[in-house]
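Narrative of activities, Objective 1.

The group set out to show that a structural description can be obtained from nothing but a protein's sequence at a throughput compatible with the screening campaign. Below is one input-output pair from the validation batch, recorded exactly as produced.
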Amino acid sequence: MYSNNALATSSGIGIRSSSSSRFGPQSQSTPEPATALADPSPMDANLAAMEGAKRSVTTSMSKDETAVMELDDTLGAAASGDYVVPDSDSWIPFTLLKSMKLPRAILSEVDGPDPRMAMGIMSEIDRAWIIINDILYLWDYLDGQANSVETYQKGTEAIIHVALVPVKTGVFVETITHLLVICRQTFIELVGISAPAGQAPPGSLPRRELTMFETDIKVPNEMAVESVVGSPEGRIFLCGKGPLFELEYRARESWFSRQAKLINHSISTGASFIPSVFASRTGDEINTLAFDQNRRCLYALTETMDIILFHVPLSQPTSVNRVAMLDHIASKARTMCPGSNLFDSKDFRIHSLYPIDASESKGIHLMAVTTSGVRLYFTHHRNRGYGYATYGAPDGPPNTLQLIHVRMPPNDVRDPLAPQNPRPDQQPAPPAPWVAQEIGRGAYTRGLFVTQEYKRDSPYDYLWCTAPNLPTLGRFSATPDSQPTPALPHKVLLSEVTCVFPIAGNVWAIAPNPAIPPVSMAMGWNETVTQFSGPPASFLVLTSSDMHIVARKRPVQTLLEVFEEYGKTQNGDAVNSFYKVYGQMQSPVMAMAIAAENTYIRPPELVYSPVALDAIMDGSVLAVSPINVNIKEYARAFLYEYGGTPVQNDPRYGYQSGPRFSARYEAFATYFSRLVRPIWKAKLTKGTVTNQTIQISPASLMSVQRDLERLKTFLAENPQMFLPGPVEYGSRQGVIASENDAWKINFTELSQAEHAAATQLQALLNQTVEAIEFVLLLNDYNMPQTVGKMEASIQQALFALTYEDFLTTKQGRETARNVVNAMINQQIVQQLSVDAISEILQQRCGSFCSADDVMLYKAQEQSIEEYRDESNAAATAGSEDKYNEFETTMNHIQDIALRSQDFVFHSYLYDWVITTEEPSTLIQLPSPFVEQYLLHEPRTRPKTELLWQFYVQNGRNMDAARTLAALAESVDFGLTLDERIQYLSLAISNAKSTSGDGLRRSETDGEFLSDLSDKLDVATVQLEIYARLTSAGRTPDQDPKLLALANSLLTISELYRDYAEPKEMYDIQLLILHTSEHHDTALVTSIWRAILDSYRDRVDHFTALSARVAELGRRFYPSEIAFPIEILSELLETYSLGFGNQAPPGWALRTLVEGNVPHEVVMDYFDRIKDSGVPPYLDPTAIRHVLDDITAFLGEWLDEVLRPGSRYAKVAFPAGKIEALVDHYLSPMRGMSNDPTKVKLQEIQQTLRKRF
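Output recorded for this entry:
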């Protein structure tokens, strides 16, 4: 259980409840940077690090792919109706982004005498259509200006219906991509549409330029068309309270066939070509059509509320196969959901059909919505019944149509416009519930449903919106550092979050906004994965007065608004509530995205279309305002608050033995994996081997790169995020709880292991940024032409490469190097200088072009240029020989120099190498004088740096460790505390590397390593003190003691005497005693008394003190030095006793449990206090106070264990022991009647006997 209060971080920031004073910084500032994650070495030296980081990415991606159930898995019962209704604006699942007024010219026509009017949305071309009598208006709602309306008027016959469908290939010119199907009373005509992206001025979004083309294609018609749908390849299906028709058209008429005709698919083949005027009526009175493009299924709804399923096979371009008809749907639904009055045949009306995309569900194919808000789910494969997971050939053609699930509308949503009628006593009545009555037009995509409720005689309609309730479907609230997360159950009923709100005007149409990158929809329902890589899903809602944009509010936007709310109210309850809902697996990831200013936390403030998506993705148009600096600080505080610490798994609690890193590290790994997911498994190029182009668009690559860069900046600004520190104990169930435990581990080593893993992951982050830059650079240099001139082996290797392999495999590195070489060679062959491209490569992606590479390229260029001065023929024939001769000469000169035995000569030579080349080149030289030179006076920092690297390169890790240790304690080089800590960490790593099994490590080496670990622990304490003091606004130049903290390594005694004690840093005092393993019971008791006394005069002292003690428990328990349970139990209970009935029941025990002390341990200590007989627990009042606290605690503990989904294992609950204690407590209370404590104990006793 997490407390609703402050957990201090190294920056002095915490989350506090409503009764506390502050969440986030007051006058404090960000601490000085601590030890930064080590800069990654060039790509060729980082293969092992890349492999380790790759495993983290792969693990995170695998978790994401199975985190949330698919639709199929949530419809395991006949009916469902679980909804979550938000009680805060921050949690409402959808938001109204923008509203645009219809042009006045159109509105004035609507207000004219007796208008025949209809409206709709053609999102494929960014137009809304409005019919007024015989005129068709096409309004560019993205422009929204008065002149952004195109008009089509031909003849005087009224237009009944309009639809936009894809065009058949080969019939019209290529610029025509769609057809307008204009349905009038006596004929149907087709108008060609071209709507390419137009040119946009800088800083503006491109829009479509619409052109209409007369096709002269018309066909007679007698029906009042109500529904038209088109297939991707250009077939057109239509209906109007009658048969299913297909409008077939071709390029031109012939002797034996017309250019266009209507084909009746509801009658036999022989009669289908008879003109409709002679065709007899059939029983299919179809009024609505819906087409599933993936599965090639056409659904038809009839006037009698039957649904007919047709299959339209792509391999049969003229066929429409009738598969099944499902009738008596109301009766079937009533059987599946008995007791509801929403299925009476006379009132049962299905209004809309929504095919469900194949990527969302394998076995659920169609959703139908009734006017009363009931959603009906169908499958078109046999052997699929509710409660079963078997399918009939899920990828094959349909063979039936079955109703398998009924979803009821919510019954506890407040009616947003209902009047608040007072009761007779003048108290306000409860809000009237919303009841769905006239559900109409709507849209559905990937679990998101937005629909209209028509409100008669009102200037408003209602929008009812639902979205999957991800925390329930994904069990996000589970906490990884408590019990092992169980596998998702086979069936969990669908749960959704829902809202209803009014919208201006009467709704005419709702459509999904197609301007969503594929990555935003790549994981189906699980928006927690895709919310960082693209804008959210949104819907276009056209009313009689406006076009509204309604966007999905994703979880990260909710957290952002929760932080914004906190900034206004300083109430941390909402922040803690968010954590409880999304848990330690998801919340820190979102906080990191906010702290790192992810691009897509909020929806774009500009209204845009698919043609403008690139401008949004590549950042050329600023679509979202920057995040407030305070909000970023709250997010950073959240990471520290809930980031946890690395722990060792305990096999006794079901975990696999081994380390488990902190939630902060998991947030880093998960966030990084979600950012790179759009590219990770994708190939770099597409096309053919000899004609390759970039696979992922530059805009998408730049989008990924931009957020990776922001993450990189965030980590650089917060190097203490994964800083290795002294031993910190954290013990929940499943984690080591005792110093004497058989699974006791060294938490310092865990922290250092996490630091190393984070360093590897940051190296991969840096490499990914450069890899994207490299691909973009290759694209800038005319990729098809550049790659086309490469050797066939390089072309093949590049064509097969994914971004994952490119970054993490040897083949990827070699391919990158070969591509660079080929690019340079092409520059040389074309007699172009290599300076420009070499400089660009080093600046933009230096890992792909080192300084050594540049020197080689320039030598090659110089050699060839010299040879070009000779005859062309000779140059052509001898350039390679010339280059080889040049290389041989240079190598010979180097050999002569290195054979010299003159140390003075070597000293001058090495000085020249260090100043003119990469310094690391020196330690690569095969010379016995290198070590002597580096040890020779004057001893400079660069030489000392090279010395320890020289030792590492030659396998002398202990010598490297001693050099680093001396460097860390040096007084000559003006090192900062951060740098000293980094050198100590490196020294420990090298000392441990001396022997893999430790057998060859001498006793002296062991003492040296132990001494290093102690110094690192003390230095980390020093860093925390320094951060605490500087956060208050003090600087080293103002305080000599602060200057000493910043620039030298102090002893543990100096830290306690000069800083922790005089500054009354009680937690630091405990940390120092713990780090130094100094046992002093009297001193520790006095420190804890001072902590308790410091809260005594506060109004919220119980809440605030509980938070502080729990925080220190999470840090120190089970250390008997800093967190002695026996002493603390008595101090807390005595503190509570001093306030009598004001103390919350069970406060002292609950505080210790929130500090990670196991329930059973707490129970043992307080049972001892009750029977101790030590003052003040000789007084019956005091004894009764302890018993009341124990009773309240036992009740809460038992309730938590028995709660469904509890993180506590029922089998681990000591039921027999607790029952014996309860019997012991009840024994002296037999003569008492109606005593509340006795009654509660008896209830606990009955529950134990019944449930255990």
